[in-house]
Amino acid sequence: MADSSEPTNGVDATPIVSPLERRNSLEKHLQTRPEEQDLKNRHILLDTTAAPALQAKQAVLERQRITDNLKKGLSKRPEKEDLVEKNILPDSTAAPALQEKQRELERHMRANSLEKHLQARPKAEELVKEGILQGA
Questions:
Q1: N-to-C CA span, the chain
Q2: pLDDT digits (tens, 9 = 90+) for 23-79
Q3: Alpha-carbon distance 118 to 111, whole Å?
Q4: What is the C-alpha to C-alpha distance for residues 113 and 123, in angstroms, rounded to an integer?
């Protein structure tokens, strides 16, 4: 039993929002619309003066230019052996995460070796007795 308030064809033709409300909504959104320069700064719009038909080709050429510059810079880069020779890079085969611990261990080993040699050093009296050091 169909109620008389329901449409007979199943489609409600009443508008959801009145045209005046829709126009006011559009105006409100246009007022809060970001500026063109802001969109360019956020890389939403392309900052270019090229025709839209050429913008894709311009982007490809720019990427190719950057790639070429990077390859040229990398080709001038000194070899690892040169950097190790100039003491810019450490001469280590350890993983980069372990290199700091390796340097610390080497430092402690040198300190221990130096301490050991200092303790084994002959006393001044012995050196005078052997004629190596002149007595004062």
A1: 129
A2: 788 888 888 889 988 988 998 887 788 888 888 898 899 999 999 999 999 999 999
A3: 10
A4: 18
Task: Characterise 122 by phi-psi region: left (phi > 0), alpha (psi -120 to 50), beta (else).
Answer: beta
- The vertex-50 CA angle with 48 and 54, nearest 5°, equals 120
E strands, the chain, are none
**Exposure string over 5-42, b if 16+ CB within 10 A, otherwise e:** eeeeeeeeeeeeeeeeeeeeeeeeeeeeeeeeeeeeee
Residue 3 has pLDDT above 60, yes or no: no
Whether 90 contacts 84, CB under 8 Å:
yes
Residue identified by tokens 């070899």 is 79
Radius of gyration from C-alpha coordinates of the chain: 40
